[in-house]
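Hi U.,

Before I forget, here's the chain from the pilot set. I'm dumping it here mostly so it's searchable later in email.
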Amino acid sequence: MRFHLWHSVKISMTVVGTTIGAGFASGREIWEFFGSYGEGSSTGVLLSMGLFFAATVIILRISWEKKTTHYSELLAHVIGTKLAKGFDGVVLLFLLTSTLVMVAGSGATFQEWNSSFLTGVWVMVGAVMVIVCFDLKGLMSMNAAIIPIMTAVLVLVCLHFLNSGSPSGLWTGSETEVLPVWPSAITYAAFNMISLLAVLSTMGQQIRHVGEIWVAGGISTLCLGLIAYLYNYSLMRVESLISQYEIPLFALVRDYSPVWVITISLILWLAIYTTAVSNIHGLIFRVSGYVSLPRWAVGGAVLLLLVPLSRLGFVNLITFLYPLYGVINLFLLTMLLLYPFSREKE
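Structure:
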């Protein structure tokens, strides 16, 4: 089969769309995992992106070689059939609750826009269903259209801030500065492993050439790395203001026009949207193995189930659920990185 660059780009944009959730786009993840560690945090960004690249390539390579159709099949190759059966339910629960968090996040966003929570929930459900009806091609096409715009806006915001000469100081130093950044960098590399595994495990039959794997991994890592590096450097210049903003990105645009603020608010909603679509996609492909229904019907049923559950609240869901999955993500990252060596031994 021949190598197709555009196909690699679509895969890479899907990787970015799965990873660049509201936490990343808002700058909160970048600050907590990197910027808060001080001037040496840029090395943490490089380490994290290196691990992320390796994990992405390994997942895509396994999916391509084994022609997997969902995450459970891929897990069986990475951690063994018996252990994969135990993880199957855990990953399914993660995808379900993560999608729930995104749906609730849309409701919270619409509340900030002086609309109702329920309106935001239904808008998200409807928007996700549009992509679900077009299956994997819809997911890849959506990311190919949205992610370049999101990336361009976030990069422009950082570059504009850095070149504007805004009154801000470089890192002033704090008690966390003495802590090494590498443990946090490794943790961040693992942060989205379950979501990434769920989406990329469905792409094995779509990949036409091994070169597409390496190019997709490279482009996605460069996009995420560029945004993370610029974000990290910019946020360190407004370190004294971070505590005043729940969304650090607004500390960079505090003197911008209202048009910029509206644009950025829309970008944050799109970040929630792309992550929700990725999670529901991975969930649908797994659940479809249990029921004899079209994938769009499975997706619709799951989304309708999540509407009443979204009332649990965005902040409450994040506070309780995200730490719960941290150890699982770290375990999966470790096993993925060890997989090529275990395969060589066999």
